Amino acid sequence: GQQVMQIPQYQHVQEGEDFTTYCNSSTTLSNIQWYKQRPGGHPVFLIQLVKSGEVKKQKRLTFQFGEAKKNSSLHITATQTTDVGTYFCAGRSGTYKYIFGTGTRLKVLA
Amino acid sequence: NAGVTQTPKFQVLKTGQSMTLQCAQDMNHEYMSWYRQDPGMGLRLIHYSVGAGITDQGEVPNGYNVSRSTTEDFPLRLLSAAPSQTSVYFCASGINSGANVLTFGAGSRLTVL
Hints:
The structure holds two protein chains of two kinds. By secondary structure, chain A is an all-beta fold. Chain A has strands at 4-7, 10-14, 19-25, 31-37, 43-49, 55-58, 61-65, 71-76, 85-92, 98-100, 104-109.
């Protein structure tokens, strides 16, 4: 079945440093979504990418969808303490099953 | 709008007991789903539904039943709880389209002793 892996599992950065998490699917995806979960909270939708090679930006966050539509990345420039949380990618592959990645937990040290 | 409401927030069960986790949404979403979250495992899909009367299995369906008699409600049933079902459970709903943005409930933390 479809599997979605994320690396790294954990990342500690100093405030102001950049951060990147990578998402890799075993199958070609129809689209990919990114969610953020604050500690003790629930996942909240950030963005969706649909087109091969698509790049979208939200302030300090840059999202990319790979050319083969099997991988994606989230890059945060100049992290802030408000960026703390776990970032998940979620992919759909021809069905209505939204399979989530394993997540990357980000800690930002002030 | 309340969004997606899950009850209870916390529950402790003994092995072999049964219970139902409730999920209700007031956004007229056709798509509803249940995930469990365990440390290091991310969110794993248990069951999902694309509309009233239609349900299907996700990645980890064993030990769980669902039904969808109305658009608003999607309860998750544990027939005979096991310690391996100790987890945080999230219900999520979406419009039901190719661009299905999921709205999550606050979660239900279940402990099985």
